[in-house]
Amino acid sequence: MAPAVKRGMKRRRLNAVEPQEDFTNVYGSHYATQDMPCDDIPDDSMPPEVAYRMIKDELTTKPATANPPTNNDSPPPQEKEAEDLMLEAMPKNFIDFEEYPQTAEIHHRCANMIANLFHAPKDTAIGTSSVGSSEAIMLAVLAMKRRWKQQRQQQGKPADNPNIVMSSAVQVCWEKAARYFEIEEKYVNCTRTRFVIDPKEAVELCDENTIGIVAILGTTYTGAYEDVKAISDLLVEEKSDVPIHVDAASGGFVAPFVVPDLEWDFRVERVVSINVSGHKYGLVYPGVGWVVWRSPEYLPKDLIFNINYLGAEQSSFTLNFSKGASQVIGQYYQLIRLGKAGYRHIMCNLTKTADYLTDALRELGFVIMSEGQGKGLPLVAFRFAGKDEGETEEKNFDEFALAHYLRSRGWVIPAYTMAPETGQMKMMRIVVREDFSRSRCELLIKDIKLCSRLLEQDSEQFIERLKEHVGRHTSGSGKIRDPMGVAKAVFKNERHSLQGKTGKSHAVC
Ligand SMILES: Cc1ncc(COP(=O)(O)O)c(C=O)c1O
After folding, report:
1. Which of 46, 78, 378, 497 could pair with 354 as two cysteines, CB 3.0-4.6 Å apart?
2. Is the CB of 275 under 6 A from ligand 1?
3. 251 & 275 share domain
């Protein structure tokens, strides 16, 4: 029990006090949103850890091949203390609860913290870790499908034709989940001006065979948050009992800190499950995701296995059995090291940097496709303006050419073909990651300006030749062996996926 406060002493209201700036959390400090001193000696001194990290990162500003700060598929380096803990945990098998009971306890704590962050009901919510959002989504889809099937069987109705409703902006793992578990995919297509699900269309697509609607909190293309509340309200209005799963792979660790009043999580009536990637804005090295259910009602019992492993009884709902314990420990470190204040400082800084970059790109004449000011993920999606958007001449280069030019300057800024029915719209996307400081942002803006100018000057043939050259020599493309090896010939040119059917290219963020 906590000691009683001595009479006469002032009670310190820890939770109500705005935390002091924490300079050991370099990218949560105000320095991350300022340019590095260039001309004058700064008036004030800088904490050593900030000076060290900012200079170190500036020296590796253009890591074309290593760990680009403009992509979030590999998060920035974790602190030494986190790395030490994770290294020490490397030999531990997460599943061995008997030998490493504290690992199970730490897993439990993380799941609780994440469930609470998402406003899950305290007494009923359950959650588990996974290797990432893809595995988490597979588990959530299995739960929705099983629950739907059981309900249909209880009603004496056929249960052999399930479908799932989602926007065509979904990450490829949703296509996989639907295909692997034999569920029909029903898409709400994006348009040239709407890059998210249309709630009305989504609800209209539902029928008695719909196992659920997917809403994405931060699509991979534009980072926009889909309107979870609008979908739920329409379902309630229609008296439909179709559940909603929120794919918060990236947004789950952003929205609660940047826009805490946005209702997208378990505060929304029809949301039954949510996934989040620990290795994106959860700021852990790759290999950890989480899925949380509102209550056991949404997780059919016959999917849970009680396993007696080396003497310890445990319940398990995962696609694999053994896995390393390090990532869960790394997640716990970040949660308690940063706390809500640390995550809030970092995510708000990233949002400010994304807004700054947005303004700069708009000024350069690009069309901005992402939402700023915390209304979406801290990323900037943009494209060249078309002829109908103020451009006088047709360009003889596209976003893919700009991506290649930037690659030759050391930046990895991918170009994509958008979701189907957007007229093969091309776009580029810069994910603002924790270590993408204002200073790095300035350098990138300069390089985008330079490369755009070069593209205007260079001939079409030269651009094509440079694309080929960069593809061959700067990136791995052309050198990477397909993981499917010799079987590649059999599987190439597939026509069953959104990419195969429509040319949509995939993204991670
Ligand atoms: C919206 C969304 N869902 C799912 C995934 C898959 O996540 P993971 O890489 O953690 O499996 C991603 C990855 O980028 C994503 O952006």
Report:
1. 378
2. no
3. yes
